[in-house]
Amino acid sequence: MRFHFDPTPEQRAALEAQLARLRQPAAALELLAAILPAGLTPASAVCTLQSAHSDRFVVQVTVCSHDGAERGYALKAYSDDFGERVWAHAQRLAPHLAPRLHRPCLPIHHVPQERVLVFDWVEGRTLSKIVDGRKPELLRHAAALAADLHRVPIVPEQLTTPQMLVEETRARCDNLRPVWPGTADMVEPLLAELQAVVPHLDSTDPAPIHGDMAAGQFLWTGDGLVLLDWDMFGFADPAYDAGHFVAQLERRCTLDPTLPPEAGRWPGCFRDAYLAAMPRVSSRNVSFYRALTLLRKTYTVCRRQPAEGPHQAVRLAARARAALEDVRRQ
Prior knowledge:
Blueprint: H1 9-22, H2 25-32, E1 42-52, E2 56-65, E3 70-78, H3 82-93, E4 103-104, E5 109-111, E6 116-120, E7 125-126, H4 135-150, H5 162-174, H6 181-197, E8 207-209, E9 218-220, E10 225-227, E11 234-236, H7 239-255, H8 266-277, H9 283-304, H10 309-329
Parallel strand pairs: 4-10
Antiparallel strand pairs: 1-2, 2-3, 3-6, 5-6, 7-9, 8-11, 9-10
């Protein structure tokens, strides 16, 4: 798993220049020329920036033909060669994942010299934004899609161990101390308890994982769910993906007062559906990774909201403590 990447100043500058270029229709069409369907003669293109970070960006390109037909693509560019790893992983995954309504969105083309992956553009609404009566059933579909991924019999990279994940979480939480020392003091005993649990986790068969599985990574098209974003793919205990998804739902339910009363049942809905589909995955380990993710997010909320974040961190730490109690009980 690639937890974090800091591009050099030169890489940042090159990425910014590439973004400026690929926002121009002529450059985008030139990049896409090799994969446009036969018979689609582009008359124009519309390029729309969807996201930009220091190490990557995504531009939506809508290609318009002379007869009014349109075809949409997403261009995802990286500041380094990580896209090659994502492309290779997607190529290995694809033969094992039959086309279904609920499916992963994998890249369809790689342009190595541009460090760009090309995806079909998918219109839809993220699962995180759906908060009505459709949510429980969609969460069950998301759990089934996660299970499909975890059954794929490939080894995409070296194993990411529970200890490595705990160390990454501690490193993240160490960033609290310079600015929010009180929050760091609150989190420290929970990190120690998390570390103490590692030798006692249930043994499990590792699997290819998404690495950043959450409701915001699933897109509802109106017909099916599509799983996006493979930038944290890895090989680990599949309970990590499940625990991460549940913790992200739990974080939302804990901090968002606008959710309906039944939202409190959403984390259990996903968890129960996933464990029913994957009975060999340890429910105890899922609780462990819930706690780990919630502790990691104490830093996230402080960084994003410096004033309110420490108060939110208290609530997330309480949920992490409850998850660790679940680990002890199982």
